[in-house]
């Protein structure tokens, strides 16, 4: 069989024009794995409420972080793809879950090159219904309907893989070595608590109160909260961080349902009020810098911190296209080429997701 790789990230609007942002938000938020309520209610919430006001506000936020070449998330994903491609013989393609760089077009490009054995790589370290699962479900649906000759395997979440933890820790250390900081906050994108319960394959493990995530359980294969706390714990161990000098929080909540807590904005505010003067923030749920890191954290987060008396606020870049990160990903691909069972993968045709 002829192998190839498909990297998939979230996607961005075509431009910062509110019309393009509206189109993007419509596709994103109408995904039943993102807003997981019955269709009529999702359509009422998204098309009837959110899309009337949010596109303008989001477009303003995107304008603050947009680059001449385009969306940072897309440009950085393309740079990573280029670096990986230089280190492997097999074709490495890139798609976005939402927007014009579709998974279907990428599958077509790969199959046109004769590829029929594809490693799908969702660019998310931790599993979530709204990220990894929606990519896997769509890719498998396309495979069945349009590319039945293709074997599709997905790279399992890498939130605890030693080489990933090593590179992430190194990227943090490089910044902290030249920075004053009293506290290091690990801020992950949030999800509604309901998503954690829905993804619990045991139907009874996840309590979302911290009591479950340390106990051994099969549920953790699909538990976003567990996987986020594990990434923090492993980086803490790797860097020898002292207890109390680092913690975990969740950002970017939307709507009125309870999302994973503690919330990042409130944590920044509380810590500033409690006398933390210098704060560093890392955002390990994102492989590439994007709106949520460059605007919500680096701009809004810093503003909140300064308002309550904080001084130095240091944001640590995502792994983006770091050479050591591209090397780690290339090694995973190399291992998969040599011996597919050498890396953790999910055979999508055999899973129950659909
Ligand atoms: C770990 C990654 C992400 C999870 C989990 C996630 C869940 C999630 N997101 C929304 C709503 C929005 N997210 C938005 C932007 C955005 N989200 C992620 C990643 C995750 N989302 C990224 C990388 C980005 C930035 C994209 C970019 O172009 O830079 C937005 C759009 C911006 C805005 O209007 O604020 C929304 C909306 C929900 C509802 C959700 C889980 C249910
Ligand atoms: Fe999001
Ligand atoms: Fe748990």
Automatic annotation (TrEMBL):
Protein's UniProt keywords contain Calcium: no
Annotated binding of Fe(2+), by residue: 189, 292
EC number: 4.98.1.1
Top-level enzyme category: lyase
UniProt catalytic activity: heme b + 2 H(+) = protoporphyrin IX + Fe(2+); Fe-coproporphyrin III + 2 H(+) = coproporphyrin III + Fe(2+)
TM region(s), chain numbering: none
One BP term from GO: heme biosynthetic process
Keyword rRNA processing: no
One GO cellular component term noted in the UniProt record for this chain: cytoplasm
InterPro entries (UniProt xref): Ferrochelatase (IPR001015), Ferrochelatase_C (IPR033644), Ferrochelatase_N (IPR033659)
UniProt-annotated location(s): Cytoplasm
Top-level lineage group: Bacteria
GO molecular function: ferrochelatase activity; metal ion binding
UniProt keywords, alphabetically: Cytoplasm, Heme biosynthesis, Iron, Lyase, Metal-binding, Porphyrin biosynthesis
This protein's pathway: Porphyrin-containing compound metabolism; protoheme biosynthesis; protoheme from protoporphyrin-IX: step 1/1
Family per record: Belongs to the ferrochelatase family.
PANTHER family assigned: FERROCHELATASE (PTHR11108), FERROCHELATASE, MITOCHONDRIAL (PTHR11108:SF1)
Physiological role: Catalyzes the ferrous insertion into protoporphyrin IX.
UniProt-recorded name of the protein: Ferrochelatase
Organism in which the protein naturally occurs: Croceibacter atlanticus (strain ATCC BAA-628 / JCM 21780 / CIP 108009 / IAM 15332 / KCTC 12090 / HTCC2559)
Source lineage: Bacteria, Pseudomonadati, Bacteroidota, Flavobacteriia, Flavobacteriales
Gene behind the chain: hemH
